[in-house]
Amino acid sequence: MKTYIATTVRILKPVISGILQIAVIVFAIYWLLQSGADAMNYRWQWYRIPQYLWFFEDGEWFPAELLEGLLVTLKISAVSLIFTLIIGLVTALLRLSDSIIGRGIARSYIELIRNTPLLVQIYLLYFVFGPVLGLERFTTAVLALSLFQGAYTAEIFRAGLTSLSRGQFEASQSLGLSNTDSYRFVILPQVIRRILPPLTNETVSLVKNSSIVSVMAIFDLTTEGRNIVADTAMPFEVWFTVAAIYLCITIVLSGFAAWLGHRLNAPNQ
């Protein structure tokens, strides 16, 4: 009986401790916000937020402004992620190639992107290259995010490729595999497993950076939040809700990456 009680206490003790810590943090945040609101004579209007998430009409539920903006954000992030991975991998291979021109192009691209602000790049693409090339706003947003994140992802891919021993490449060739099949079946699976943690960070960063495309009047989550604030004068409730939605997205991404890393036996973050 004593052993059972001791085991139960040992299991419940960290759980109760965690709940108490979370409760203290929540109470501190609530007290801080409430004190600030009282000092500004601000009246919370949380009851109005759900109508900007969804609404019920003719017997059906429909997404409201914030959820519609969320769908746009997810669409931009998903398409940008695909192109980010392609650009990152191609750039990394160019940097490791024997071609002087290829290495020069890859290095120039990485240095150019990493040493200029994302907002300036978006302005250049939207106001200069977009009209010249006839790019739509969505395409411009995807291109800007892909080029920006691709430069950082290229370095991650390069680090993963250089971390493999030369023997892996030689073993692939000894099996008679072509270069394409060597990368497809031998090299890239090992590289992905090694770079999964930093790749997850880049994905989370891409989702957060997608909020900057709101400067191009794309109706993403941030733009919808800004429009609602302009119409309702509820900055705190709306921006806290927008931040919570972004937080949920990044937590889900991190959880998925952790699960995938566990399946692939990847190193922990």
Give a description of the structure.
By secondary structure, the chain is mostly helical. It has two domains: 1-42; 62-264, MetI-like (MetI-like fold), CATH 1.10.3720.10. The protein contains nine helices and two strands; from the N terminus they run αββαααααααα. The chain has helices at residues 2-39, 65-95, 100-114, 118-133, 137-163, 166-174, 179-209, 221-232, 235-264, and strands spanning 54-57, 60-63. Strands 1-2 form a two-stranded antiparallel ribbon. Helix 2 packs antiparallel against helix 3 and helix 4 packs across helix 5 (137-163).
Brief rundown of the structure:
Belongs to the binding-protein-dependent transport system permease family. HisMQ subfamily. The protein is an all-alpha fold and 269 residues long.
Main attributes of the structure:
78% helix; flat; 269 residues; single chain; 2 domains; MetI-like fold; two-stranded antiparallel ribbon; mainly alpha
